[in-house]
C-alpha cells in the first residue's frame, strides 16, 4: 500500500510539471468558405484567410484564431497556456466564444490589429468600412484577463519548413496547480497515516 501511495504521489507531481503543455495531433487546418480580407501583415500583404479551424485527434474540430503570420503544418502540436504577450488576443477570442456581437472574421481582424498595431493594416474585404473603422473598434475595447478556457496551439512547421504557427482555441489546459495540490494532499495523508499508526 505504501509503495502504491508513494508511486501515486510521484506520478501526480511529475504530471504537474508536464501539464504546462499537452500534446495534440493536428490532422487538418481548414479555412472559412470564402472568408478572407485584403490586409498588410508583418511579413507580407494580400488576401489572407480570416477563419481558421483545426481538426485534431483528441478534441475534434477546434474553432481557432491565428496569432502568428506564418504558414502552419499538421502533425504533433502542443496545447499550452496563453503566454503574457497574447493575453489581450486571448481575451478577444474569449469574447467571441462567449457570443459577442462581432463575427469570427471581424474577431480575427480585431486580434490582428491588437497584436501587431502599426505592423498591420486592414484594407478591405470584411464588414469594417476601412482601417480607421477597425482601429476605432479596437481602441474602444477595455481588455480584461482571459480565463483558462482559451489556450494556445503551437503547430508544427509545414513540410520542409522551419516556422511554426500559433492559434488560440477554446480549450483549457489542465492546471498544474491543481495537480500539485492533489500530490501534496496525498503526501499529507501519508504523513497523517504514519502519525496515527504510532
Describe this structure in a few short sentences.
With 198 residues, the chain is of the alpha+beta class. It contains five helices and nine strands, in the order αββββββααβαββα. Helix 1 runs antiparallel to helix 5.
Tell me roughly what share of residues is in helical segments: 25-40%
- Sheet of most strands: 6 strands, antiparallel, barrel
Gross morphology: elongated
Number of E strands: 9
The whole-number mean of residue pLDDT values reads: 84
SSE inventory with pairings:
Blueprint: H1 2-18, E1 22-31, E2 36-41, E3 44-49, E4 52-56, E5 60-66, E6 75-80, H2 87-97, H3 104-116, E7 121-124, H4 131-139, E8 151-154, E9 166-169, H5 176-197
Antiparallel strand pairs: 1-4, 1-6, 2-3, 2-7, 4-5, 5-9, 6-8, 8-9
Report what the structure shows.
With 198 residues, this protein is an alpha+beta fold. It folds into 2 domains: 1-19 and 175-198; 24-173, no CATH class. 36% of the residues lie in helices and 26% in strands. It contains 5 helices and 9 strands, in the order αββββββααβαββα. The protein has a 6-stranded antiparallel barrel with strand order 1-4-5-9-8-6. Strands 3-2-7 form a 3-stranded antiparallel β-sheet, with helices on one face. It is elongated and about 75 Å long. The chain starts with a helix and ends with a helix.
